[in-house]
């Protein structure tokens, strides 16, 4: 968990323009939140960002896969979160732009659904 936490803190420090980004425990990784709204997480060394219907195509055009994990009855795919494009991870401006889009997507989720994500 420590490496997930450290990586999440590193991304949080490099994201500009969203205000303070906090890092929280999230299953086996660490989540990124702005004003209490989760817009991303780090799991197994990969940054995943929130995607909505409008933004999902941008992730797919960059060859990014949705978050998935092995469940009790097989592979589970969660299309609400996609891998961040590799080319933005070392680009503060690019990372901030994609994070802003992810936060917008997360804020568009109704409050009762947000608590479950």
Summary keywords:
single chain, 117 residues, Yope Regulator, Chain: A, 4 helices, 6 strands, 38% helix, globular, TfoX_N, TfoX/Sxy family transcriptional regulator of competence genes
Describe the protein's architecture and organization.
- This is TfoX/Sxy family transcriptional regulator of competence genes.
- Residues 16-106 form the TfoX N-terminal domain.
- With 117 residues, the chain is of the alpha+beta class.
- It has one domain: YgaC/TfoX-N like chaperone (Yope Regulator, Chain: A, 2-Layer Sandwich), CATH 3.30.1460.30.
- The chain has helices spanning 2-14, 53-61, 92-107, 111-116; strands spanning 21-26, 29-34, 37-43, 46-50, 66-71, 74-83.
- A six-stranded antiparallel sheet has the order 1-2-3-4-6-5.
- It is globular and about 40 Å long.
- The mean pLDDT is 91.
